């Protein structure tokens, strides 16, 4: 995150954060640092000269502030914006009518002691689901999180507010989302042909174009987790607070993309390469020294 972006974020959150004894700058910086690194809670508290209790309180204060401003950062596009997104997908991949790509991602957690089996995903570890729709620039248009890992993607979607939005005509008739085979084919959801080993040339070509377009949502999740490395394993015992933390990271993901007009391809590659490289300068460390 650039310094100018950080200052803009402070202006957005300032009306929703209490001042008391810890400055707003330190609250937001410690929040960014905690999400962006894999340090222990105690280590982060020491870094910012805070007690563990204070860091815990200020971290969730920022989460709550981001929840308040979330409608300004993650929102369903209007008709003009939908047309712009469709044009963006068409120029990138040649697939017409795409207003967004949808998928789910697992956010690993330790798992609660009670009903632990409900949180075990098909990959064998406890997690919380994150469903998201993104545009061609990796920006989230809609997110839903909080469902346990054992729940299928299709069930999460069926019970999501997004489904009601789509069924109520919030898409132009010729526009649609792209989803994988976990979702059902509808007028607003385009899914690939089921590969039974006997696909025609046209069907195989469609699936290839579909996959190369839909991969953008995987890249959005990849960039989200590369920037906010805490999401690789969110070590939290308070399961009810996990969705709030995930949502705050998604808000920050969008905020950075909107306010920093960098090349997304290069940004993603650099972040992915630097995830575990201790020699790479941390931008939050630089901001900490400047404040």
Automatic annotation (TrEMBL):
One of its GO terms (molecular function) is hydrolase activity. It is found in: Nucleus. The keyword Ribosomal protein does not apply. It comes from Petrolisthes manimaculis. This is DDE Tnp4 domain-containing protein. InterPro entries: HARBI1-like, HARBI1_dom. Residues 102-254 form the DDE Tnp4 domain. The keyword Lyase does not apply. Its main location: nucleus. Its cofactor is a divalent metal cation. Keywords: Hydrolase, Metal-binding, Nuclease, Nucleus.
């Amino acid at each position: 995150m650039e310094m100018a972006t950080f200052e803009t974020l402070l202006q957005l959150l300032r009306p929703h954060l209490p001042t008391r004894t810890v400055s707003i700058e330190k609250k937001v910086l410690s929040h960014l640092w905690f999400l962006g690194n894999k340090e222990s809670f105690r280590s982060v508290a020491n870094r910012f000269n805070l007690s563990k209790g204070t860091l815990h309180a200020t971290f969730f204060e920022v989460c709550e502030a981001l929840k308040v401003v979330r409608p300004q950062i993650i929102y369903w596009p209007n008709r003009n914006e939908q047309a712009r997104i469709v044009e963006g997908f068409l120029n990138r991949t040649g697939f017409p009518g795409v207003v967004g790509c949808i998928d789910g991602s697992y956010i690993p957690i330790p798992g609660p002691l009670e009903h632990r089996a409900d949180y075990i995903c098909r990959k064998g570890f406890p997690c919380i689901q994150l469903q998201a729709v993104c545009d061609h620039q990796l920006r989230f248009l809609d997110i839903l999180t909080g469902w346990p890992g054992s729940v299928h993607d299709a069930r999460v979607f069926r019970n999501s507010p997004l489904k009601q939005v789509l069924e109520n005509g919030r898409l132009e008739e010729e526009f649609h989302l792209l989803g994988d085979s976990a979702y059902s084919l509808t007028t607003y959801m385009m899914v690939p042909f089921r590969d039974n080993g006997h696909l025609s040339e046209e069907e195989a070509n469609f699936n290839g174009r579909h996959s190369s377009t839909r991969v953008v949502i995987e890249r959005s999740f990849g960039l989200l987790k590369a920037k906010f490395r805490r999401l690789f394993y969110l070590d939290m015992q308070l399961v009810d607070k996990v969705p709030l933390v995930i949502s705050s990271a998604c808000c920050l993901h969008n905020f950075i993309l909107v306010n920093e007009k960098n090349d997304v391809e290069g940004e993603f590659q650099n972040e992915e390469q630097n995830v575990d490289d201790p020699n790479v300068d941390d931008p939050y460390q630089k901001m900490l020294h400047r404040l």
